[in-house]
Amino acid sequence: MDSVTFLGYIASLLTTISFLPQVIRVVMGGSTKDISRNMYVVFITGVVLWLIYGFLIGDFPIILANIFTFLFTSIILFFKLKNDRREN
User: Fold this and answer.
1) pLDDT at position 8, please?
2) Among 27, 76, 82, 86, which one has the highest count of C-beta atoms within 10 angstroms of its own C-beta?
3) Total domain count for the chain?
4) Where are the transmembrane segments (predicted)?
């Protein structure tokens, strides 16, 4: 593996796992009061576009990172929508 690909894997790992503490907090605690629904909708849309881009150019670090980022952020958004519905 060359250094550029390695750099891509490290960058994708760090940006992806940055969502893990929020996922754990939302799943364990259930509170999403201070989370912006619109931010997550826009962010997930961007992640899906990055994922498509990664597939189109065949870049595995981009694909892998965005699959996991999509999963983590979708969990957060799911709980946010569920809690918003419950509060209304």
Assistant:
1) 86
2) 76
3) 1
4) 6-27, 39-56, 62-79
